[in-house]
From TrEMBL:
Pfam families: DHQ_synthase, DHQS_C. Residues 192-335 form the 3-dehydroquinate synthase C-terminal domain. Residues 80-186 form the 3-dehydroquinate synthase N-terminal domain. One of its GO terms (molecular function) is 3-dehydroquinate synthase activity. The chain crosses the membrane at residues 109-130. This is 3-dehydroquinate synthase. Gene3D superfamilies: 3.40.50.1970, Dehydroquinate synthase-like - alpha domain. Keywords: Cobalt, Lyase, Membrane, Metal-binding, NAD, Transmembrane, Transmembrane helix. InterPro entries: Dehydroquinate_synthase, DHQ_synth_fam, DHQS/DOIS_N, DHQS_C. The keyword tRNA processing does not apply. Its cofactor is NAD(+); Co(2+).
Amino acid sequence: MKLKSATEFVPGKVITLSTELAKPSPFYFGFDIEHEFVNVLDSYSFDKIFFFTEPHLFELYGKELYHKIAEKYPCFLEFVPNGEACKYFPVLEHTCEDLITKGVSKKSLLLAFGGGTVGNIVGLAAGLIYRGIGYIEVPTSMTGQTDSTLSNKQAVNGKTGKNHFGVYHSPIFIWSDTKYLKTEPPVSKRSGIIEGIKNGFISDASFLDYLDTVLNPQLKFSDEQLYDLAYQIILSKLEILKQDPSEKHYGIVLEYGHTFGHAIEWLEKGKMSHGEAVSFGMKIAAELAYELGCISHEDVDLHYYMIEEKLGFNRPLPQHITTKQLMNAMIADNKKTGEDIRFVILEKIGKCHNPEGDFLVTVDLNLVEKIVDQFIASQQYSHRISA
Ligand SMILES: NC(=O)c1ccc[n+]([C@@H]2O[C@H](COP(=O)([O-])OP(=O)(O)OC[C@H]3O[C@@H](n4cnc5c(N)ncnc54)[C@H](O)[C@@H]3O)[C@@H](O)[C@H]2O)c1
């Protein structure tokens, strides 16, 4: 073996190496592609697979894929609780300990068949067991196919907020079959599409033109339209991730509407989807950007048009949410950054404000409170006229 020449020995001098760890995952995408799955799996080396899903997803589609795998490889079926209920420590602990009892090894693979929640709990378990074993994501929801699988962020919720505990752990591959999206509940499908609308607002105005032509509030799509919609939303997020896979610098713009959204989602205690909460958050963020003189009234209206008229997220904010609660929830959620509450602010449609080289902008909290107050008053008015 040829040794690299040693670096010069200078006590006190720091030299910089790199772990060279950036690791993108193959992302297989198509419509009705199940028959190809085992061919792809054949190229990986493993001893057994633990196939995780929710009972109703197993009945709908999982069964077929599970049997295809089990015909050729040792494959064990595991169920997790439906939806967000699986993203808690007791489920994580049970999942990890159960796998150890059942003989999971460093060569085993976990497979997550389901929405973003199944992907998150299984991805986190895979990241923890023996300090990280392989896993495969088979997302069945719009959020899973176009958003959560592209981030490598695995997490469970804490007692005071969402996704407080987690790791970055990338799947060995992602298998995205848009056939599954047909039966996804409307609110869940809208929750995935809203992030695509967000991507248009923050980075590509022309993407909003495309969404305007394809979206409809009844979510009526042909197989081909649904395939294309998922594909285009994936590309819209990848365009942003290409510039900053860490989501810490430019990629932070993906948090548009999320400062308000996370607080609303938390106040709703599981009764509102992440995407619907973000849809409210984007509307408030638009009102804030208008107040700051960054965008026009027409730009604010475009938010309401895309979110309410085109996507069908059109119910008012639940009446019990008050300005004080929302402000307090934002302050509590913000503990994780250890900084002021900051916001992604639009400069124009398709571009975010970046004063002093930072896409997270500090805004006077009195002004934020005023905007939240006005927004909540407008929502109360909508409740009154729809009563
Ligand atoms: N890691 C990330 O960067 C990231 C990004 C976005 C969202 N997330 C997380 O993802 C979760 C939301 O994901 P989600 O919207 O997929 O929620 P989900 O997993 O709860 O799925 C929503 C509902 O749809 C059902 N469902 C899923 N696919 C279906 C199908 N094909 N047919 C019928 N029903 C189906 C599920 O059973 C569930 O009841 C949240 O916990 C969020 O924190 C993570």
